[in-house]
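From the methods appendix. Each design record in this collection lists the discretized structure first, followed by the designed amino acid sequence. Records were kept in a plain field format so they could be parsed without special tools. The example shown here is representative of the layout used throughout.

RECORD:
C-ALPHA CELLS (343 positions):
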C-alpha cells in the first residue's frame, strides 16, 4: 500500500544538493556476537554521526515561531484520542547496524511494498549477526514493519529499508532509501513527493535517541514520533516530502508536523533522569512526525550500545506528558499530497 510548499521561515537546512513508508506500531532484539565470534555492530552509531552537513533535525528551535493554527491542531489531535496507545510511550525495538569492510552486500527481490521512483533498488550491506526491527535476525517472522537500518561509514551511505525479509536464502525488500551521508540536501531531501522508509520522506536513524545519549545526559537532535493516521490530515509540511492517506479532520495537523514541548512544562516532575533528558531535547529540538502508528516515540534498541535502557528509561516514563503540553512549530503552508515523486 503506497502511503504515503512553502518552506518555513526558519532556515532548517545547511544544505543544497517514499506509501506508508513503513509504519504501524514500531514497537526487537539479538544479543551477543555473530556466529563467527565478531560483534555485529562493533562501532555503535552515535547521534550526529550520520551526515557531513547539518540537517533539519540538528537545528535548535527553542525560539522558533509557533504555527498560527498550533492551538487548533493540538486540540484536534487531543479530541481524536491524543497519543496512540493512550499515552506518550516509547518503542525500543529499532536497531541501527554498522557495516564493516567484511559485511556481505546482498541484492534483494522487490515486493509489493517497493515503489518506483521513490525507492532505491541497489545491493545492501548485511552485517553478520544483525537483525531487522523487532526480530532476532534478518527474517521478518511477524509480518511487522521490519525496518532494516545500516550505516556504512566507509562508503558514506545510510541504508534504510521498510519491510525487509531474508528467508530461505532469499532477500526480499520493500522501500529502500539510500542516503549518501556526504551529500548536501535541500528541502526536498531525496525528492519532492517522494517517500523513504518512513512515509514523511525523512531518514529514520538520525531521529532515534539512544541509551548512550540519554546516559550521557544530552540528546542533540530532534526526535522521531508517530501518530495514528486518523489524527493527521492528508498533506505535508516541509521538511517532509511525502505523506499518507490519512483521515484526520480539517483542523488536524499534516504529515511532517514539528511538535515542541512547551518551555513551561515541569520537567522535574518526571519520574526518571532519563525521561528528563528526553523532555529537554523535545523542548530544544522538538520532535518530527514521521509515520503512522501507535507508540509515539522511537528510541534505538540498546543491543549495540554501551549503555542499556534497563534502569535508565522505561517505556512509560513520559506518560504524564499530554498532547496539549506541546505546541507546533511553524513550517509554512501545507503542501498537497500527489504521490508524483520527482527525483
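DESIGN:
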Amino acid at each position: 500500500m503506497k502511503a504515503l510548499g512553502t518552506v518555513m521561515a526558519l532556515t532548517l537546512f545547511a544544505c543544497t544538493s517514499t506509501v506508508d513508508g513503513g509504519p504501524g506500531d514500531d514497537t526487537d532484539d539479538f544479543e551477543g556476537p555473530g556466529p563467527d565470534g565478531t560483534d555485529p555492530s562493533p562501532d555503535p552509531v552515535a547521534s550526529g554521526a550520520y551526515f557531513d552537513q547539518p540537517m533539519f533535525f540538528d537545528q535548535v528551535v527553542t525560539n522558533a515561531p509557533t504555527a498560527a493554527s498550533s492551538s487548533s491542531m493540538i486540540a484536534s489531535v487531543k479530541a481524536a484520542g491524543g497519543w496512540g496507545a493512550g499515552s506518550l510511550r516509547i518503542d525500543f525495538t529499532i536497531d541501527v547496524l554498522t557495516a564493516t569492510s567484511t559485511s556481505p552486500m546482498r541484492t534483494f527481490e522487490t515486493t509489493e511494498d517497493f515503489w518506483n521512483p521513490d525507492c532505491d533498488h541497489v545491493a545492501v550491506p548485511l552485517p553478520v549477526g544483525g537483525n531487522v526491527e523487532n526480530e532476532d535476525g534478518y527474517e521478518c517472522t511477524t509480518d511487522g514493519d521490519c525496518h532494516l537500518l545500516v550505516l556504512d561509514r566507509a562508503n558514506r551511505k545510510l541504508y534504510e529499508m521498510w519491510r525487509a525479509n531474508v528467508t530461505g536464502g532469499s532477500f526480499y525488500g520493500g522501500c529502500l532509501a539510500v542516503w549518501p551521508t556526504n551529500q548536501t540536501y535541500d528541502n526536498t531531501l531525496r525528492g519532492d513527493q517522494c517517500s523513504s522508509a518512513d512515509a514523511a520522506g525523512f531518514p529514520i536513524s538520525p531521529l532515534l535517541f539512544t541509551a548512550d545519549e540519554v546516559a550521557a545526559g544530552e540528546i542533540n537532535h530532534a526526535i522521531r514520533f508517530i501518530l495514528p493516521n486518523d489524527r493527521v490530515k492528508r498533506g505535508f509540511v516541509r521538511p517532509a516530502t511525502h505523506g499518507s492517506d490519512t483521515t484526520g479532520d480539517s483542523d488536524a495537523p499534516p504529515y511532517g508536523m514539528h511538535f515542541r514541548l512547551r518551555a513551561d512544562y515541569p520537567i522535574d516532575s518526571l519520574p526518571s533522569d532519563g525521561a528528563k533528558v528526553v523532555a529537554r531535547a523535545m523542548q530544544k529540538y522538538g520532535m518530527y512526525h514521521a509515520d503512522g502508528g501507535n507508540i509515539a516515540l522511537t528510541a534505538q534498541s540498546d543491543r549495540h550500545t554501551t549503555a542499556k535502557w534497563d534502569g535508565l528509561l522505561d517505556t512509560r516514563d513520559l506518560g504524564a506528558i499530554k498532547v496539549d503540553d506541546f505546541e507546533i512549530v511553524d513550517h509554512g503552508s501545507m503542501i498537497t499530497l500527489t504521490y508524483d515523486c520527482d527525483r
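APPENDIX NOTE: DSSP finds three helices and 17 strands in the chain.
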